[in-house]
From TrEMBL:
CDD domains for the chain: HAD_BPGM-like
Organism, as annotated: Streptomyces tanashiensis
Domain of life of the organism encoding this protein: Bacteria
Stated name of the protein: HAD family phosphatase
InterPro entries: HAD-like_sf (IPR036412), HAD-SF_hydro_IA (IPR006439), HAD_2 (IPR041492), HAD_sf (IPR023214), PGP-like_dom2 (IPR023198)
Organism phylogeny: Bacteria, Bacillati, Actinomycetota, Actinomycetes, Kitasatosporales
Pfam short name (any one): HAD_2
Amino acid sequence: MDGTLVDTEVLWWQATEEVAARLGHRLTDTDAPEVVGRAVEDTAAHLVRATGAPDPDGIATALTTAFQKRVDEGAPMRPGADRLLAELERAGLPFALVSASPRSVVDSVVGGALAHVPFALTLSADDTVRTKPHPDPYRTAAERLGVPAAACVAVEDSPDGAASADAAGCAVLVVPSLLPVPPGPERIFADSLEDVTLDGLRRHVRARTAARTAGPPEGGTGG
């Protein structure tokens, strides 16, 4: 959701910047790996380490409140997102929203900028025991869709999100937003959702499945 379908990663950065400033910490690019694509609790824990503040729960609440305020004021769609979602809908292909944001934020975006989108289901950080970068969110989404994770494509913009989808066994398409995402053996990349089509997603799954089925070359060994 954040940074993939809607341009909320900037809002999350602004919210974290605001809370960090209250704690006497100036947010810089060195903080980005602990902020971009991370769950609220992860960023709160980072601010505790950076500032020595004693109340991670209070910081998490402050982050959520600051972010929620910005989201409620409006979250613009990412380029190409509307067109791709409409293509999936026309094809009758079920799709889910899998987010590391709290349920309150997911509901706000789904009821606002994404109100026109017929998601089969939505998952927030509150809906699994562990959120991204753990595999739980994508495994749970695949189970609820009733399909193997290997038949799903996860579209992600952050290192944690891509790691979560990889670990769950999904094919992964990375469309980076604020933070660079490292390459992986089964990841493909696009500069924008404007460059992504349903046919392209299907080709990625087929190619990945074929490569896995083929196995190592004759006389070789698997890695």
